[in-house]
Amino acid sequence: MAFFMKSLNVISRCQSAFRSRKCGGELSSLNHSLILAICREPGRSQDELAKDICIDKSGVARAVAALESKGFVERKADPENKRKTLVFPTEKMTAALPEVRSVTAEWSRSVTEGISEEEFAVFQSVLFRIEKNARKIIDEKEENAGK
User: Fold this and answer.
1) What is 32-62 written as a DSSP string?
2) CA-to-CA distance for 92 and 50, rounded, in angstroms?
3) For the chain, how many structural domains are there in total?
4) 72 and which of 42, 66, 93, 141 could share a cystine (Cβ 3.0–4.6 Å)?
5) 38 is in which domain, residue-wise?
């Protein structure tokens, strides 16, 4: 199984380098993940974003603050729970979204080149199950930490 984890890590680092090269210096690879998550569902809390992209809450808070300072997002207090900070895309983020999606699609096409639809369907099914198990482990650890 060690080869599997090493391969996933290498693929992730390669994707980060690819995204950075394609989109320039203003947006990091983490920013790409946040842009996609924020634009998919505007107005989510930073905690929900952290859970969605599996980054610790402080990391998301720093990344969102950096995006805010660059004019990509706007943060607002949740009117129903003032302790929650909701994140909304700005026009600048909405304008960057097509490029981020394009780079993501190009990466996906490139790394799956030569893999049949059937092979990819099986791989995707297995990978989704592994992701589900990984998220379950993290969720259980967070629940037990709160007790």
Assistant:
1) HHHHHHHHHSTTEEHHHHHHHHT--HHHHHH
2) 22
3) 2
4) 93
5) 2-113
Q: What is the pLDDT of residues 59-70, one digit of tens each?
A: 999 999 999 999
Residues 40, 69 share a domain? yes
Torsion of CA 41, 19, 50, 7, to 10 degrees: 130
Q: 99-129 burial string, b = 16+ CB within 10 Å, else e? A: ebeebbeebeeeeeeeeeeeeeeeeeeeeee
CATH number at residue 56: 1.10.10.10
134 and 146 inside one domain: yes
Q: Dihedrals φ, ψ of 19, to 5°?
A: -60, -45
Q: For residues 140 and 83, state if they share a domain.
A: no
Question: pTM for the complete prediction?
Answer: 0.80
Span 63-118, pLDDT tens digits: 999 999 999 999 999 999 988 999 999 999 999 999 999 999 999 999 999 999 99
Is residue 90 domain-shared with residue 139, that is, in the same domain?
Answer: no
